[in-house]
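User: Study the fold:
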Amino acid sequence: MFPERSVFIEPNLVTVMKLSSLFSSVRRWRHYRDTVQELSRLSDRELDDIGISRSEISRIARRSLVADL
């Protein structure tokens, strides 16, 4: 009675670009989170040895995202 429909719908370019942007955002967020976690595990002495303070961790993690572009 009804014509058969294909189960697979071919994605259009806009959908692919949106998914690509979403995956890129997730990768960047994970990189930021991993950087913050790694730096947060260091002691204050270790952070001082590399020239940063604990209050700078999130700023440095954000800056690392720009450097990776």
